[in-house]
Amino acid sequence: MQLRSIASHHDIREEGCDDRLVRSSSTALANDQHAAGSSAHAGASHLEEFRERSLARGVNHVLYWIVRAILLPAFLIYFRLQRIGREHIPSTGPVLLAANHRSFLDPFVIGTLTRRPVYYMAKRELFEHRWQAWLLNSLGAFPVDRGGGDEHAMSTARTILERGDCVVVFPEGTRVRQGPLGAPHRGVGRLALQTGARVIPVAVMGTEDVRRGWRIRPRKVTLRCGRPLGFPIVEHPSPSIALGVAERIWACVSLQWEWLGGISAARWDQLADNPSQRHVRAA
């Protein structure tokens, strides 16, 4: 009898211990979830701050022109930068510069095509460090979440265009370092239709060869702009219409790309069975 009593008492103690462990684990999990939620909220607020700054203040004109005055001669000398078709870019009114994306350097060399300040989307990871975020934002960048359709970034770009400024977009959505151009997303079509902005197709060639590790190598960089494209304003374009417009814009970018010597997707596929012939400039 005494043994049963002792065993029963021992079971009660174990159950009490298990309850405390469960409560402790639940509390820890709740704290972790709260911390994660707070961190996500803080991150979203941080990004929203820079979007609002792009809308309210725009670029830091003093810093923008100082940086431009330094970079432009450096690009012209070090990269032998060649800019073709600059006369096609309107000097006033909303403008979308739609370009292929090969390197981190692309927004900066594209910015030399016009004397107007340009705005562009940059991946949210570049805004994690405060000083870097401030610098990029002062030079026209605003954050975009590339994991899905970022309506906040699209709204920011739309508002910037509606006030008559210039926005750089990369319809591929990410960098395509080698080979032919990638496929466009429909976001550029949406912006063109919703704002009525003139669209300038731009091909960028040579920037993918510039960086190796931390080294910035002297390579020939060439930009070519096509004639402006105009589209009727559609307040709520369907996905299929937006994609159709994006493909029309991308066809013009591809034309500039091939004019510079870039290889087309069709030609790349033809060479797939004979890699030795890929000496044609494909990047």
Short overview:
The chain is an alpha/beta fold and 283 residues long. The protein has helices at residues 2-56, 61-78, 106-110, 130-138, 151-162, 187-195, 239-259, 265-270, and strands spanning 82-84, 95-99, 118-123, 141-144, 166-169, 198-205, 211-212, 215-216, 222-225.
Detailed description of the structure:
The chain has 283 residues and is of the alpha/beta class. It contains 8 helices and 9 strands. It has a 7-stranded mixed beta sheet with strand order 1-9-6-2-5-3-4. The chain has a two-stranded antiparallel sheet with strand order 7-8. Helix 4 (130-138) links the parallel strand 3 (118-123) and strand 4 (141-144). The N and C termini lie far apart (86 Å). The relative contact order is 0.13. Residues 1-7, 28-42 and 278-283 have low confidence and may be disordered.
* SSE class: alpha/beta
Quaternary state of this entry equals single chain
Write down the Rg: 26 Å
User: Can you write the helix and strand succession as a string?
Assistant: HHEEHEHEHEHEEEEHH
How many separate structural domains? 2
**What coarse outline follows from CA principal-axis ratios?**
globular
Distance, first to last CA: 86 Å
Indicate the percent of residues in helices. 40-55%
Low-confidence stretches: 1-7, 28-42, 278-283
Please tally the β strands and state the result: 9
% residues in beta strands: 5-15%
The CATH superfamily label of the largest domain reads Glycerol-3-phosphate (1)-acyltransferase
How many DSSP H or I helices? 8
User: What is the name of the CATH architecture of the largest domain?
Assistant: 3-Layer(aba) Sandwich
The major sheet is characterized as: 7 strands, mixed
Mean of residue pLDDT values: 82
Strand order of the largest sheet: 1-9-6-2-5-3-4
**According to CATH, what is the topology of the largest domain?**
Glycerol-3-phosphate (1)-acyltransferase
CATH class designation of the largest domain: Alpha Beta
